[in-house]
Design brief:
The protein is α+β, with helices and mostly antiparallel strands and 249 residues long. The chain contains seven helices and eight strands; from the N terminus they run H-H-H-H-H-H-H-E-E-E-E-E-E-E-E.
């Protein structure tokens, strides 16, 4: 079976969004267990969706929460003072009045917060969101391009859960790297990607940990991709053991 064609078919996206029949779902899960490339692609798509949701999440400022809590204290204090003179409310009535007041205040704060946003800030947010969308679309376009090999880089140390994913186009010689599971490094160190060509490591560039797809140097006739930890700025030849590697199949 042509695994790359299967990955590019769109069935994995339908699987993630639960749009397949039970039989089709079982087939995808069977492919996932049988082919590491399929499993890696499913994880990659799920990560992209999670990143997309996180990037577009916008939480209210801390000041809003503080104002709401302050208003609750103010209302409780006021009602306690009133209750010493004339107990106008039952227990349930008191709770309902508190809830209604807080809800009204919170709604007013949220509306005010939304209207307060400056036009320039909103425009900047729109630009940022568009950039994020463009990056995600670029990643999906590369992942679905049948001209790209998907090379899964696994940990050389079986006791560690480390991974990365390389997209390599033999025709254009373009190479893209997507971070998987690699631990953070000290400031004086960087990860460096290598292409093993005719048995010799060729520098493909250094990189830092980021959620975005990274374009590396071009390469041809690659047999294996590997990553090592090098001094900041990179090395002409590997100076440490391989962290993750994967053969082009």
């Amino acid at each position: 079976m042509d695994i790359q064609a299967y990955i590019s078919s769109g069935v994995l996206e339908l699987y993630i969004f639960s749009q397949l029949s039970s039989q089709e779902k079982a087939e995808v899960e069977e492919m996932r267990a049988k082919y590491p490339e399929v499993a890696a692609e499913i994880v990659r798509i799920e990560t992209l969706l999670e990143k997309f949701a996180f990037d577009f999440e916008k939480k209210p400022r801390k000041e809003l929460r503080d104002k709401i809590l302050s208003k609750i204290d103010e209302i409780e204090k006021k009602n306690k003072e009133n209750s010493k003179i004339i107990p106008l409310y039952s227990t349930w009535g008191y709770r309902i009045s508190i809830a209604a007041s807080v809800l009204l205040f919170a709604t007013t704060c949220v509306l005010g917060y939304t209207l307060w946003q400056k036009t320039a800030e909103n425009k900047a947010l729109l630009v940022e969101n568009k950039q994020q969308i463009d990056l995600i679309q670029q990643e999906l376009a590369i992942a679905k391009n049948p001209n790209y090999y998907h090379v899964v880089l696994g940990a050389n140390d079986s006791t560690k859960q480390q991974s990365a994913l390389v997209f390599w186009n033999p025709k254009s010689q373009e190479v893209y790297l997507e971070m998987g599971l690699l631990p953070a490094l000290p400031p004086d160190k960087q990860y460096q990607l290598w292409a093993i060509i005719d048995g010799q490591p060729t520098d493909m560039g250094v990189f830092d940990i980021t959620a975005n797809l990274q374009k590396m140097k071009i390469a041809q006739n690659v047999k294996t991709f590997a990553i090592t930890i090098e001094p900041k700025g990179g090395s002409k030849a590997p100076t440490s053991d391989i962290v993750v590697s994967g053969d082009v199949s």
